[in-house]
Specification:
By secondary structure, this protein is α+β, with helices and mostly antiparallel strands. It has four helices and four strands; from the N terminus they run αββααββα. 57% of the residues lie in helices and 14% in strands.
Length: 167
């Protein structure tokens, strides 16, 4: 592809895959699940439970403006993640993957904020008996996995730089 930066296939492949999977699974969840009614997938450990989150991660909320405040944060995150990808070195394929996963996740949830005032569609419900993790979606998974990968990559880079400088 002409004009595609080094690692472009990795970054954009991951980003597009997360967005497509996120939009498709949310569409299916909204069509086949009933709001707040759990559907067992793997016993009681993994369930699909449709929920709408007008706030942010872990149901953080800032009142009626949440949709727009967290939408603006998502746009800022998309710009920062794209910039980090754009300034990455050609050999940093894993970093491009991490950034693409996070970018795709941020974009997936932004799509929900733009399309509906109900909030982000969540449906993956994991836990044991009454101890449940927050309900989440594919986009959240992309952001989380990408952020953990990026954290590890940046920590390793920092340790290498300290070692190289004798510190």
């Amino acid at each position: 592809m002409t004009g595609l930066r080094p690692n472009g296939r990795v970054f954009w492949g991951a980003a597009v895959a997360i967005v497509v999977l996120d939009v498709a699974t949310k569409f299916i969840a909204e069509r086949h699940l009933t709001l707040h009614v759990p559907h067992r997938v793997i016993g009681d450990a993994v369930r699909f439970t449709l929920a709408y989150n007008p706030g942010a991660a872990f149901s953080m909320h800032v009142g009626p403006a949440s949709r727009w405040v967290f939408g603006a944060f998502a746009i800022i995150a998309l710009i920062i993640l794209w910039h980090l990808y754009h300034t990455s070195e050609p050999g940093e394929r894993v970093k491009a993957l991490a950034l693409g996963l996070a970018w795709g996740g941020a974009a997936g949830n932004l799509i929900d904020r733009v399309r509906s005032s109900a909030g982000v569609v969540d449906f993956i419900d994991i836990g044991v008996r009454s101890v449940r993790f927050w309900t989440f979606n594919v986009a959240d998974s992309g952001v989380s996995v990408g952020a953990v990968m990026l954290g590890i990559i940046l920590l390793r880079e920092d340790l290498r730089q300290k070692k190289a400088s004798g510190g």
